[in-house]
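Hello,

Our lab assistant flagged a job as stuck in the queue for most of the afternoon. It eventually completed. Since we weren't sure the result was trustworthy after the delay, we are filing this so someone can double-check. Below is the sequence as submitted and the structure that was eventually returned. Let us know if re-running is recommended.
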Amino acid sequence: MTFIPDWKIADDGWPVLALAGIVTILTSMIFLPLGCFFLGIMMWLAHGLRLPSRQIKADDQTIYAPAYGVVLDIENDRFPDGLAGDDAAPAKRITIQTRLTDTQLQTSPITGHIVDSLLLPGLFRKWGHDSASWQAARLSNERREIRIRDAYEREIMLVQLGSKTARQLISRLAEGKFVQAGEPIGMARIAGVVDVFVPTGCKLLIETGQHVIAGETAIAHFFRRPSAKRS
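-- returned structure --
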């Protein structure tokens, strides 16, 4: 019996997979062994671009990892300019790098509404191995800022960052769209870097070098639950 993986491809992964399929067919017609090689590449892409089936039990005090990958850096910072309100300006920044072998899908860290989704054009510099090169890439590389507000008026910012491999920063969710924690929110195709900005009072639950799973790994807890939800 032949085993066929039960993979559901993420919507944002289909264009890449379709292109890989066309290349595989054309190369198979010209030179079959090369076509077999590209078939292997296509299967690898299908694995990375799939929509994983997970049981997510989110609560309104927990912030979940928005991407698969390794935690590169955790630093005190400030929210990007898109976040309104001086009292919310200080932040903790968690940087996650998705590898080529990771699932590429990105998910919402909290349950709430999309406030902003802004694409800011830039370069696609390579991320180095030190904080100085990371900061230089943040300033010059293309990025997409996605701000999400929950029912208690608490906000987090997800920033997709371009790189040598991640040249398409995708989030098709319109402003005002309601998303559940762990729900697909976009993709940095492929192997991108993401910064997660959380309020400075949050308790961090992860550490540098840790591998995280989108929508499943808890990365922080809000400091406290407000007394009442937004009406």
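-- support follow-up --
The delay was a queue issue, not a problem with the job. The result is valid. Residues 1-6 have pLDDT under 50 and may be disordered. Residues 14-30 form the longest helix (17 residues).
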